[in-house]
């Protein structure tokens, strides 16, 4: 039977300290001098521990039970309540916790990444790392402690995410070392502790008949107009999914038939020009009355100030019956790359249109418009090819032989 306020008030001290149990590890310790201290006994890592929970009556019976329940939830989540309290005190006092330094690192370097890449990093840390070691002083975090964080990610089958989280944590630790707030990077001790990832290529469709079926399925898609337009535009521009969903009306030049993507949105941090075919412009003009009053071509249904979800196109493909082994949002890039190379287009023009990395950084700064005239012809020819396969007509591979001057 648990304690009551009446039983506590009526209790009297004795020559020796004694306990009044409330259950669940919680008890009131009465000392010979009359003081009454709340205590919570628990086991963590095979060891018995005791956590002080305040003095009665400053901490009421109701309040201490809430503190006990919170501590028990931490234990169920694999967190030591004593360590959590210590970390919170150190965090409140401005100590160098992992989360504090990680956010500082992110703020410093995120300007060098694309917006999508940066979002993935901070979301990964917030979801999979901060809840477990975020409040810990970074210099006290050990390799086994970091491994337990990565094991949780691995246990749900997200092996690649575990490797990426390890990489990000290593970057944070090395930043802490460089700024004098840690002595070493424990992530280096974990090499080989997480199973290797299996190399996966983005599923794509490259057979002309199957491409035609996909395009007809897109036209028949019964979801919202915004997502259907994104699906129709994706094969025509074959940009990365993050670049597509973040497209803004201010970047579209209808007169020049170009979409100019700022460098900060691109994976390689280089501005990029996407020539817009007649078919791409038709999609944009259909979408224009619906979303042009806002910032994004493809806004979120919840807020016009945010782009649509990164899973919107992928979810639509699944609704259309295409599994992850058949087609992905990235698959439109593989589709275009494969067929355009087969058709004999200039490989450099294809790579430039795919916005792949330029190894020479000086050249990269000036090459965003490289092969632009040829790329414009290529993008229109590609759109015409897609239109023909969608109609189910006879497909005659186009072999480019004319050199542009």
From TrEMBL:
InterPro entries: CB, DNA_brk_join_enz, Integrase-like_cat_sf, Integrase_catalytic, Integrase_DNA-bd_sf, Integrase_DNA_bind_dom, Integrase_recombinase_N, Phage_int_M. One of its GO terms (biological process) is DNA integration. SUPFAM superfamilies: DNA breaking-rejoining enzymes. Residues 96-177 form the Core-binding (CB) domain. Residues 201-384 form the Tyr recombinase domain. Keywords: DNA integration, DNA recombination, DNA-binding. The keyword Heme does not apply. The keyword DNA-binding applies. This is Phage integrase family protein. It comes from Leptospirillum ferrodiazotrophum.
């Amino acid at each position: 039977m648990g304690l009551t306020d009446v039983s506590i008030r009526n209790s009297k001290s004795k020559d020796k300290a004694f306990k009044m149990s409330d259950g669940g590890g919680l008890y009131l310790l009465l000392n010979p001098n009359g003081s009454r201290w709340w205590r919570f006994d628990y086991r963590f890592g095979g060891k018995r521990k005791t956590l002080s929970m305040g003095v009665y009556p400053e901490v009421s019976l109701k309040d201490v039970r809430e503190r006990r329940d919170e501590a028990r939830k931490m234990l169920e989540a694999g967190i030591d309540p004593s360590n959590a309290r210590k970390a919170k005190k150190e965090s409140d006092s401005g100590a160098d916790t992992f989360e504090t330094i990680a956010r500082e690192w992110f703020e410093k370097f995120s300007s060098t990444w694309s917006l999508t890449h940066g979002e993935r990093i901070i979301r990964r840390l917030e979801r999979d790392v901060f809840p477990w070691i975020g409040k810990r002083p970074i210099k006290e975090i050990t390799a086994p402690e970091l491994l337990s964080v990565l094991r949780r990610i691995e246990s749900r089958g997200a092996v690649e995410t575990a490797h990426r989280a390890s990489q990000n944590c290593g970057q944070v630790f090395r930043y802490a070392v460089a700024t004098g707030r840690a002595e070493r990077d424990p992530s280096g001790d974990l090499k080989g502790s997480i199973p290797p990832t299996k190399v996966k290529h983005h599923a794509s469709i490259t057979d002309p008949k199957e491409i035609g079926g996909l395009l007809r399925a897109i036209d028949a898609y019964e979801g919202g107009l915004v997502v259907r337009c994104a699906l129709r535009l994706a094969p025509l521009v074959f940009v990365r999914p993050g670049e597509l969903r973040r497209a803004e009306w201010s970047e579209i030049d209808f007169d020049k038939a170009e979409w100019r993507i700022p460098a900060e949105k691109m994976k390689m941090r280089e501005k990029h020009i996407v020539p817009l075919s007649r078919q791409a412009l038709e999609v944009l003009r259909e979408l224009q009355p619906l979303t042009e009053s806002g910032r994004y071509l493809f806004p979120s249904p919840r807020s016009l100030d945010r782009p649509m979800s990164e899973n919107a196109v992928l979810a639509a493909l699944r609704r259309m019956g295409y599994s992850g082994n058949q087609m992905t949002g990235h698959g439109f890039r593989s589709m275009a790359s494969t067929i355009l190379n087969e058709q004999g287009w200039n490989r450099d023009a294809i790579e430039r249109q795919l916005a792949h990395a330029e190894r020479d950084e000086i050249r990269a700064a000036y090459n965003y418009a490289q092969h632009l005239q040829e790329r414009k012809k290529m993008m229109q020819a590609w759109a015409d090819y897609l239109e023909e396969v969608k109609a189910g007509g006879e497909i005659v591979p186009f072999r480019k032989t004319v050199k542009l001057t």
